[in-house]
Design brief:
This protein is an alpha/beta fold. It has a single domain, classed as Rossmann fold (3-Layer(aba) Sandwich). Helices cover 33% and strands 13% of the residues.
Length: 224
């Protein structure tokens, strides 16, 4: 993404809409690493008066839109992308959503709108880990064939291993090269990846670690 940590509201910046608001800690870590604020601020997560709320909020430098109400993010991304067209800007808009969020009807209304308007500057990324907060996604509301559903709405569909950075980078290149339609990247991932006691478990959605759990997790994540 084109961005300027020293100028978070730069008008030509690319935009990110973090539709799945519970992933905010990952966004905050990325913003701190990029220099939007001091990394020590990360320890204030979800504390009263902190700029790092439980869901993304515009009080945080580098956050373009407050999110967390599921289903609304892609519509917001469409609005940003349409504004770029009307203003003669070349910035791109990325919307990171969850597969459970695809239960929401507004996601599909937004998908139809983006295709109808030919918003090729919109890229949606679906975290396809197969698990949502209650259970496996296919038990709550069947998603498959997810790729064919998005194609039927007029989107370019790319399916990748969401843990493979080479595939991630290439998919973003393909999305940028595509000028006639929006692109959705279905990133197949494992929820809780890297932690043996949480992988693929719906309970990892709101996991609370004891000091012992934290030590165990850090040891596993440090493994080559």
């Amino acid at each position: 993404m084109n961005h300027r940590p020293e100028d978070p509201t730069w008008s030509d910046r690319d935009r990110l809409v973090l539709c799945k608001g519970h992933a905010a800690p990952a966004l905050y870590a990325t913003l701190a690493h990029a220099g939007y604020f001091d990394q020590g601020t990360l320890l204030s997560l979800r504390k009263t008066g902190s700029i790092l709320q439980g869901h993304p909020a515009r009080v945080t430098p580098g956050v373009d839109i407050s999110t967390g109400s599921l289903g609304q993010g892609l519509s917001i991304a469409n609005g940003m992308a349409l504004a770029a067209r009307l203003d003669g800007k070349n910035y791109r808009v990325f919307a990171l959503t969850g597969d459970g969020e695809c239960d929401e009807g507004q996601v599909w209304e937004a998908a139809m709108t983006a295709s109808h308007l030919g918003l090729s500057n919109v890229t949606a990324i679906i975290d396809r880990n197969g698990v949502q907060s209650d259970d496996a996604t296919e038990k709550i509301k069947k998603k498959e064939p997810l790729d064919r559903k998005w194609r039927s709405f007029g989107w370019q569909v790319l399916e990748i291993d969401g843990h493979n950075f080479i595939q991630i980078h290439h998919s973003f290149d393909v999305a940028e090269w595509t000028t006639d339609r929006p692109t959705v990247i279905i990133a197949r991932t494992v929820k809780g990846k890297g932690l043996s006691f949480l992988e693929g478990d719906a309970n990892s959605h709101n996991a609370s670690f004891s000091e012992e759990d934290l030590d165990w997790a850090m040891d596993e994540l440090r493994q080559p």
